[in-house]
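Cross-posting from the chemistry board since nobody answered there.

I work mostly on the small-molecule side, so proteins are not my area. We synthesized zinc ion and want a rough idea of how it might sit in this target. Sequence and SMILES are below. Is it possible to get a predicted 3D structure of the two together?
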Amino acid sequence: MTTPRDYYEILGIGRESGEAEIKSAYRKLALKYHPDRNPNDKSAEDKFKEATQAYEILKNPDKRSSYDQFGHAGLGQGGGFGAGGFGGFGGGFDVSDALRAFMRDFGGGSVFEDLFGMGGGAGSRRGNRGEDLRVTLKLTLEEITSGVEKSIKVKRLVKCNDCSGSGVAAGSSKKTCGQCRGAGQVRRISKTFLGTVQQIATCDVCRGTGEIISDPCRSCRGEGRIRGESNVKVNVPAGVSSGNYMTIDGMGNMAAHGGEPGDLLAVFKEKEHDYFVRNGDHIICELSISFTTAALGGMVSVRTIDGEYELKIPSGTQPGKVIKLKGKGIPHLNRHGRGDQLVHLVVWVPTRLSPDEKEILNKLSEQENMIPPKGNKSFFEKLRQSLGV
Ligand SMILES: [Zn+2]
Ligand SMILES: [Zn+2]
């Protein structure tokens, strides 16, 4: 086991930092290295885990004072995160534990937590528990707008039926581990310059189970779990965004040698749309109109997420004008109502003209009304106005 880095150093704060400073330093790091922002980036994931571990210790006054006195050794005796996976350093602390801890304190507010049933803290699960699994659920903008029930197949470790998850062959039984006498943990006393430090370590003979299987089940080789597949239904509420996720209880891996299964984290990912761009709960699109329509005004058809919509173009419409269709955007996730659709108008100029058309346009161009005024508002000012900011 390598010595972990200093927790204050990880968060980049001084040893006298207060609670608010710890929280804000961690939040900054967590947002930067969050797995959803750094997909498939192992080093970012490790930094996210490391920062979360540091945060979990320093935000807790008891653990912090123990750490301040004894360093990492002071956290060895269950002073960490309880037996449910948080105990070790670098070992048991899974990225899903880190995600859970982050969600608990920062995850989009309490509404999000309530909605997604993220109740219970990181330390609330104890005992033998299988690993959490993570799947990415790709959603179209249409599915996000309406909400959708998705059926997914999840490859996971399931309970071995031949031994009912015990890992013991039929007719045989488990024996209590001699080294730890069934405790699953052994106490180690080491002398350091700080004095005698007691550490609790997982028993290496029984690997923490407290029991020895002398005649393992052949189907699962004593693991109590085998490879399997489950159909999982995920009810995706309308209005989710990429990076939001739902926890489906008990659909992670079954624990080895019997116990509780882990959870499944279904992380949402929005598919790129061929026509719309999403901005928060607003939908943005571009609509080309003819320059005669721009000058004369008229009705044009524009695509919305709900279908075609007849849009009135006022006469004298300038290119770049944005027309807001109220309530035609994405439903808000945690409150009533929907965002808007912003139709960005582009005036299309024909590229090929017949001689007749040329003649008409030539005549038109001589008219006084066809000469643009000088001193137009700048592009940015117009954009600001049309967005109403
Ligand atoms: Zn043992
Ligand atoms: Zn078995």
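Reply from a structural biologist on the board:
Welcome over. Reading the output above for you: The mean pLDDT is 83. The pocket of zinc ion (ligand 1) is lined by residues 177, 179-180, 184, 203, 205-206, 210 (CB under 6 Å). Happy to explain the token format if needed.
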